[in-house]
Specification:
There is one protein chain. The protein is α+β, with helices and mostly antiparallel strands. It contains nine helices and 14 strands. Strand 4 and strand 5 form a beta hairpin. Helix 3 packs antiparallel against helix 5, helix 6 runs antiparallel to helix 9 and helix 8 packs antiparallel against helix 9. It is elongated.
Amino acid sequence: MKRLFLQYSGVIVFVLLVSTSFGNAETITISSGSVNLSFNTEGAISNTLSVKLENFPSLPNNVKVKLVFSPSVIKTLSTNINLTFTQNLFTAFNGYSVILDDGTTNFTLISHVIPTGVLVHVRHVYSNWTFGQPPPPDGRGLGVGAMIDSQNLVKAIPSSVNSVSEGSSFGEGLVNLVLGKTVDYNQDSKVTTFSDNWGFASYLYGMRDHIFNAGKSTDASASTLTLAESINQNFTEIIPSGNLGSFLSNINTSTTLLAKLYRDGIDLLESKSVSNQTTIVSNVTTVSSQLQTKLTGLFNIFRTHVISNNVIISKSFNFTLSTGTPTSAKASSNSPVPLEGMIIIIALPIIAYLGKKQKII
């Protein structure tokens, strides 16, 4: 290494020529990468995230991309990976970070925090709701309850109707599911229900309202509000606008999917023909499938938006690794400056040699 001293106006300028070759030091540059998190759709209470990394370069073996919800909940990521969590993410956390980690030092790529006002309503939909007389079983979220009821209905549909009493029992279960009742409508001395008795209609209205309220929260982003308004509109195919009371008073005339299921349940209770009941059950199969598909889409699109919304790494940065020197990291909104061959100029004040000629040593 060469040292060059210049005396000038009482200041020594120390010019040091260096490179980045500290041990195995290496600079990693990622520009405009993205981390896309989405929930898998196979179940209402699934805590499985699908994570995709895009525009990430190949990293050294000792450098990992990690998803951090808390010091005790850290998952190592790859280009495409599914991660299953034991806890409900919305109950336990309010956000996460994505970091680069070389084992001793880490650098935060992105940090995502769900706004407090939005999170209140998100939790009511996706994790827990403790209100009502009584509240739902286990205080489950309103959206979770709606998804479970939808799944229970699909599972309960008989593959065939072998007797009028069998068709009638299924109709009874269907009506009890929609209304949240435990009534022996066909008076056979036993109650058939596919629900937790809180009511499919109650869950659906609660889910719709709290997603909409999340979007209307004062700390919600414009995109969250837009999505919440779109979901609110899409719910009109499942339940009509208005509230639960107005829906129940117009349930015999409403053209929504839930009202159709209720009327099919009544028709099954009243029918005295196995052939007619078979036709009705076929219709229930079609309508319940339409409702489940619609509901699952609305359920998942909002929770995926809240937890991710395809977070973009819009800035370039350097993450420098070193085996012999402490790791350093820095971020810049501009393209990274290559460190190899960089000239570092350090100015040190000294006592001027007055009266002497300027000279080079």
